[in-house]
Design a protein that fits this description.
Layout: H1 17-30, H2 58-71
Amino acid sequence: FHFKGYIQKIEDRSITVTQLRRVLKYCSEVCHHWYELPKDEVANPSAGPALSMEVLNLYHIDSWLIWPATEAYRSSFIELMAEQAQPANWCV
């Protein structure tokens, strides 16, 4: 996922189903390299069990994908996927 550019309005940073499927496909391909992070930052960071799609959740995706990918540009994750504003048709 590479930075495409900033989208000014928060309400224009929605994700499409196709983009969400792309994220899930990526996670299914690489999550076996990820592991459960300890709750205590002092603990050995690689001590947790390996992850799989059966146990993967948004907290894992945030730690292993979203935060590292957005940190350099201090961007939203959608700014790594969308070339332009994507206003939402509905919101959950």
